[in-house]
Automatic annotation (TrEMBL):
Higher taxonomy: Eukaryota, Metazoa, Ecdysozoa, Arthropoda, Crustacea
InterPro entries: RNaseH-like_sf, RNaseH_domain, RNaseH_sf, TNP-like_GBD, TNP-like_RNaseH_N
Xref: CDD domains: Rnase_HI_RT_non_LTR
UniProt GO molecular function: nucleic acid binding; RNA-DNA hybrid ribonuclease activity
Organism per entry: Amphibalanus amphitrite
Name under which the protein is recorded: Transposable element P transposase
Pfam family, one: TNP-like_RNaseH_N
RNase H type-1 domain segment(s): 848-984
Superkingdom classification of source: Eukaryota
Length: 1143
């Protein structure tokens, strides 16, 4: 190709350049590919610019499994990517030199890199890292510390040292955080007095400087003081808060705070010296180190003295960020003295000794390749490869379109001659392999070939020997093989039809499109494809479907026993060996040589990706289960929620624990109710005599569950029933039946609270408030029982909120009131905090800017008690108001949100401004409750909010907007802090609603019930937790599992002998567990009670080892219903040949 018509210089074509760069590969845990760039550029790099520093840091990656096509290997799961970068400290180049996954930098890796760079002529002067635990461990291993040696000997040059630096911006952020959280004190003695600088001073300063139009510091805002989560990671907020401008503002606003101004000024001056980015800057101290050497050295000495004498909070020792500052200061001074001996050196840009270059690389890898901000390990390698070759990430697409003209300069280019050395994100990689070309010019096969491109390429010669076919069990001849039962027939046919459609031009005999065949010609097994198709799906031929099924046998054999261990100890059956697709393809080509290799290649890739997706889904489920178990262990009241796959399974599982509720009372006989309705699951318990005592039977009464009204239809005698101990509570818990005593307490408390919520002149309220007559007085009457339950729940003396007697009129107009309960797809809970925050900001930007804004939030301890509401109001006139309100001693989080919103709306009700009103809340439940309309409000607080809204809406537009919670929105975080502070206010005068009081009683009664369970085999397994419902449609099997774990098994020989259904010649019936007729029929060692069958029977030792990995099973493992069912089936299978069939 000729690009210069005058000179006629021939240049390589785009296709040639694309072919050259296609051989570039990036191997993890290897430096060879990266160091080639430096070696090529060594000849053209000035000697001074070769002085370099080593930077390394970790970057989080997506933990999903992925497939690397270039290396043909399954990668993952990994959490972190360790990246090492080399950059010049006197020039403008930088270069990544190492990438590894879940690997810490060791002294060996560091020394190997130093020797390689020195050998190529790049003197290594510094090593930069943050103060993570792994990096601090590396410092200790090398003998580096802030109060000792801050360098190590250069292994390649005895006359030079390698100096270690902490990331100074990271240290500054930590300094800011500790000042705001704990305060900064001068002196390390016992009596240090008041803090010199703390959050109160900064908050007051921010409030003062923002209260007037002409301010002394326009940049300082409340965000600088109340930064949380993501905002705490922003360096510019810390630098602006601890800046010279703030230091000068303090004496102007406050008297007697000169010491605080001096401290902040010392911090700002020292940071300027440690973060210089050019030779000459706007401030003398920000110039390169050496331009104003005397002043710069004095600033560093003052900062060093301050860090040695200052303490944060009650700590008596130096914090890690102080040690990092001291390490960097001393290394900077020593490095400057060492560099003065280098020819041509004039100044030192200290900003080149932090991790900004690495952070810039991470940002480019995440944000410049589309919307996926969290790449997988394979995507990280591909993106880093594109950055190295100089292609434009924005145009990196798989396309064959060639550009009509080349842009003058690409995203990244080499350091050009005559360019002054300068620090910043504009530093470039050392070699421009593909600089100036768009990524669309790169052949798509060099990045990520598609399925068609992969299969269209000529496959290599098979490298799989015939012995492998015999080893995995594939017959060498054409004998018919069995199909795998793991894949459904329909799914296999659909996959076979997919391959047949994609390779129809290669082999038309693989299948026929449904539009080309009559309905009567469709095979019976492919009717589903025909019904699903609109004419373009392909029905596989019988021969191809048979081959496809045989392929499945080979695939399963190759991956059997391979992969990584899952949470339950089994392997995930997905090989991580290199060449995973090639091995399968070559094996199939040897076995079926008549089939086209492109067909087999497509099948191999398709089948591997199907398995990869399945394994990723399974491992994700394991991860969620582990998180759920960890949360249950951390919880004081663990109540695990069953997770069932489908709606049908969920309904079936709940049928076992619902349908009837059984309460214990004295009046009724069991037979009177039991014969009317066949109660499940109590019927099998009674049949097997698990409820043995006659008193228990007489105390049982059936109470119907009203599904439509979602309430219990209770006779009055239930509320007056006496309390009785019931050792069978674990049995009822296994059956999914709630505790009778906790249910009675809940019902009594609910009745009492509803009565107390009535008007004072209501007869029922007078009855509830009065003491019962002596002849009716008992410890379990509904008034006494309800009052004692409220006292136990901590609600003694709490006022019940009056019932809403007069609802708002249904025809009330609410036209100027709008409810927005979403901010777009990015606001979903599954999205990251950054994504949710950006979606919220974009949505809020469309609302009126000149408006009164309300940001409200509620808080409740554990979501049940000590509620508080807080709100921040930004009026249209520029005034900022804060509201705090107590929400009650017993209060839900939603109720606290409503209290906060009501208090804020009442605060702005009389505001004369006609500007619109925007109220933001992070409680979708509260806004959904209000959005139902004025007439739909059934609570007092909901009606009060609507009355206020209607008053405000008469003169201004009102919008209630939902925002994501705790995603870094400064106003929302400020309202949350106010709500938590309001929760500490006195709560005695705030009433609670009947629902909150009833829930508190139910939680307390349920906890007491679980804590008082008798010691039994059931309690050994579950402790004080309830078992999960068993999914599936086999109710008999579920009952059997529940009985085994409850310690009363209906199929036990000991139990059958005790009730006379398993007599022997010597003994017809007895309760003795040592009777020969009651012994285990398999081992004859002891009675076959559930503990023996599940934990101790020696015949089942192999089954326990296979299922759990140990012959000694921890009782807590029996929470797994599948394990109990498997052990039961194994025991019955061993017992049946001995003549003991099912009872």
């Amino acid at each position: 190709m000729s690009t210069n018509a005058q000179l006629r210089w021939p240049l390589p074509s785009i296709r040639s350049i694309s072919s050259w760069v296609s051989g570039l590969r990036i191997e993890p845990s290897s430096m060879a590919q990266f160091l080639q760039f430096l070696q090529v550029a060594a000849a053209e790099t000035a000697p001074l610019a070769k002085n370099c520093a080593i930077l390394f840091d970790e970057m989080s990656v997506d933990t999903r499994l992925c497939y690397d096509q270039q290396r043909d290997v399954i990668v993952g799961p990994h959490k972190q990517a360790q990246v090492i970068m080399v950059r010049s400290i006197c020039g403008a180049w930088k270069q990544p030199v190492y990438v590894a996954f879940d690997t810490a930098i060791s002294p060996e890796i560091l020394m190997q890199l130093i020797l390689s760079l020195e050998e190529m002529g790049y003197p290594v002067r510094a090593v930069v890292s943050d103060m993570g635990s792994k990096n601090v461990g590396l410092w200790r291993a090398l003998g580096v510390s802030y109060d000792g040696e801050t360098s190590i000997a250069n292994p390649a040059a005895a006359d030079r040292r390698v100096w270690f630096f902490a990331d100074v911006p990271h240290c500054l952020k930590n300094l800011r955080n500790h000042i705001l959280d704990d305060g900064l004190y001068l002196g390390c003695g016992g009596d240090r007095g008041d803090p010199v600088v703390d959050s109160d001073l900064m908050e007051e300063l921010a409030r003062e400087v923002s209260a007037t139009e002409f301010t002394v510091n326009r940049k300082l805002t409340a965000l600088h003081v109340h930064a949380a989560k993501g905002d705490r990671q922003r360096v510019y907020l810390a630098a602006q808060l601890l800046s010279e401008t703030v230091a000068k503002s303090i004496p102007e606003v406050f008297e007697g705070q000169e010491k605080a101004a001096e401290v902040i000024n010392i911090i700002d001056s020292g940071f300027d010296v440690l973060n210089s980015r050019r030779r000459y800057a706007d401030k003398p101290l920000r110039c390169g180190l050496g331009v104003h050497l005397t002043e710069q050295l004095a600033a560093l000495r003052k900062l060093e003295e301050l860090l040695l004498t200052a303490r944060c909070g009650s700590r008596k020792t130096l914090l890690p960020f102080q040690q990092g500052f001291l390490l960097s200061i001393r290394s900077t001074l020593a490095l400057y003295k060492e560099m003065e001996k280098v020819d041509g050196f004039q100044f030192l840009q200290t900003a080149l000794l932090n991790q900004d270059a690495l952070e810039s690389l991470f940002s480019s890898v995440r944000t410049k390749f589309g919307s996926n901000l969290n790449p997988t390990p394979t995507e990280l390698l591909y993106r880093l490869r594109l950055l190295l070759i100089g292609a434009s990430p924005a145009a990196a697409r798989q396309t064959s379109v060639r550009p009509a003209s080349l842009p003058e300069e690409g995203l990244l280019s080499a350091a050009r001659a005559g360019r002054p050395p300068q620090c910043g994100t504009e530093d470039e990689f050392v070699v421009p392999i593909f600089s100036g070309y768009d990524a669309t010019t790169i052949s798509s096969t060099t990045i990520a070939p598609s399925v068609d491109q992969l299969s269209a390429a000529t496959p290599p010669e098979p490298a799989v020997p015939v012995e492998l076919l015999e080893e995995i069990g594939v017959p060498p001849n054409g004998a018919e093989t069995e199909t795998s039962q793991a894949i459904s027939e329909y799914g296999m046919q659909y996959a076979a039809g997919f391959v047949a459609a994609k390779r129809a031009k290669v082999d038309p005999t693989l299948g026929t499109r449904t539009c080309d065949m009559a309905e009567e010609d469709v095979p019976s097994g492919a009717r589903w494809i025909y019904l699903l198709s609109r004419g373009h799906l392909t029905v596989p031929s019988e021969q191809w479907l048979e081959n496809f099924k045989e392929f499945e046998v080979v695939f399963c054999a190759i991956h059997r026993g391979q992969g990584m261990a899952r949470r339950n100890g089994t392997l995930d059956q997905l090989s991580r060996a290199p060449g995973v697709v090639k091995t399968l393809s070559d094996t199939l080509c040897l076995r079926w040589p008549r089939l086209d290799e492109r067909v087999i290649s497509l099948y191999a890739r398709l089948r591997t990706f199907i398995r990869l997706r399945h394994v990723a889904k399974v491992r994700r489920g394991d991860h969620l289960a582990a998180l759920a178990e960890a949360a249950a262990r951390r919880s004081e009241k663990p109540t695990p929620t069953p997770v069932v796959g489908t709606r049908r399974q969920f309904v079936k599982a709940r049928q076992f624990a619902r349908g009837a509720v059984y309460l214990f009372t004295t009046p009724a006989e069991l037979s009177e109710s039991f014969n009317v309705v066949a109660p499940q699951p109590l019927k099998p318990l009674l049949m097997h005599n698990l409820l043995r005592q006659p008193d228990w039977r007489r105390s049982l009464v059936l109470v119907n569950w009203n599904e439509a009204a979602h309430q219990l239809e209770l006779p009055l005698s239930v509320l007056g029933a006496r309390e009785a101990e019931f050792p069978g509570d674990p049995l009822l818990a296994e059956a999914g039946i709630p505790s009778a005593w906790s249910t009675r307490k809940t019902l009594a408390a609910r009745t009492l609270c509803r009565a107390l919520a009535l008007p004072e002149d209501d007869p029922l309220r007078r009855v509830a408030e009065a003491d019962p007559p002596t002849r009716l007085r008992s410890t379990t009457g509904w008034r006494q029982l309800g009052r004692s339950a409220l006292i136990e729940a901590g609600a003694e003396g709490v006022t019940v909120e009056p019932r809403l007697e007069v609802p708002l009129l249904p025809w009330t107009t609410c036209r100027p009131i709008a409810f927005n309960l979403d901010v777009g797809p990015g606001g979903r809970r599954a999205s990251s905090n950054e994504t949710r925050r950006e979606a919220a900001r974009q949505h809020l930007a469309a609302l009126p800017a000149q408006a009164t804004w309300i940001w409200s939030d509620g808080s409740a301890d554990a979501g049940v008690r000590r509620g508080g509401g807080g709100a921040v109001i930004f009026t249209a006139s520029g005034e900022t108001l804060e509201v705090e309100v107590a929400a009650g001693g017993l209060c839900s989080s939603t109720r606290a949100e409503l209290f906060a919103l009501r208090a804020a709306l009442e605060r702005v009700r009389d505001e004369p401004s006609p500007a619109p009103l925007v109220a933001c809340s992070d409680s979708r439940a509260a806004l959904s409750l209000l959005s139902a309309g004025a007439a739909a409000q059934t609570t007092t607080i909901g009606a009060a909010i609507w009355r206020t809204l209607l008053d405000i809406a008469e003169r201004r537009q009102v919008t209630l907007q939902w925002v994501p919670a705790h995603c870094g929105l400064a106003e929302n975080e400020r309202a949350d802090a106010l709500a938590k502070q309001a929760a500490t206010l006195p709560q005695g005068a705030v009433p609670s609603d009947a629902r909150s009081l009833t829930r508190a009683v139910h939680r307390t009664a349920t906890r007491q019930w679980r804590e008082n369970w008798p010691d039994s085999f059931f309690k050994t397994i579950f402790g004080s937790t309830l078992p999960l419902p068993i999914p599936g449609e086999d109710r008999e099997a579920a009952i059997s599992v529940h009985q085994l774990r409850a310690g009363h098994w209906g199929r036990s020989l000991q139990y059958l002998h005790r009730i006379g259904r398993h007599p022997s010649v010597e003994c017809l019936q007895c309760p003795d567990k040592r009777c020969p007729a009651a012994l285990c029929a398999v081992c004859r060692e002891e009675a076959d009670v559930p503990e023996h069958v599940l934990l101790r029977c020696p015949v089942l030792a192999g089954a326990r080892l296979r299922l759990t990995g140990s012959i000694y099973v921890d009782p807590s493992r029996l929470r797994d219903a599948d394990l109990v069912a498997a052990l039961e089936a194994g025991y019955l299978r061993h017992r049946e040949p001995l003549g003991y069939g099912p009872p």
